Amino acid sequence: MIQRTLCTIALTVIAAPSIAGACAVCAGDPESPLTHGARNGVMVMVLITYALILGFGGMFAAKILHARRQTANTSDDQIADV
């Protein structure tokens, strides 16, 4: 079923490329406010995604460093008790 759907879509794109053409924003004036707004919206979404990824990476790095410091302090305390 999926293969038949993909074949139909591919044939439609090949037979009638105007249907698969760019939208009015993409094919329109590159200096229009609508195009600038769409570009800025994409940039905001990309920046939010990168900020979240970096935030989670920083959180995990801080947790790892904290755990290493605790184990180092615990082993130092055990050596001092002996």
Distance, first to last CA: 72 Å
Judging from the principal axes of the Cα atoms, what is the shape?
elongated
Largest sheet data? none
List the total number of helices: 3
Q: Based on DSSP secondary structure assignment, what is the total number of beta strands?
A: 0
SSE pattern: HHH
Kindly provide the radius of gyration, computed on alpha-carbon positions and rounded to a whole number of angstroms: 27 Å
Mean pLDDT: 82
β-strand amount: under 5%
Sequence stretches where pLDDT stays below 50 over 5 or more residues: none
Class from secondary-structure proportions: mainly alpha
Helix content: over 70%
Polypeptide structure, described:
The chain is mainly alpha-helical and 82 residues long. The chain is 82% helix and 0% strand. It is built from 3 helices and no strands. The chain has helices at residues 2-15, 24-27, 33-81. The longest helix is centred in the C-terminal third of the chain and has 49 residues, at 33-81. It is elongated. It starts with a helix and ends with a helix.
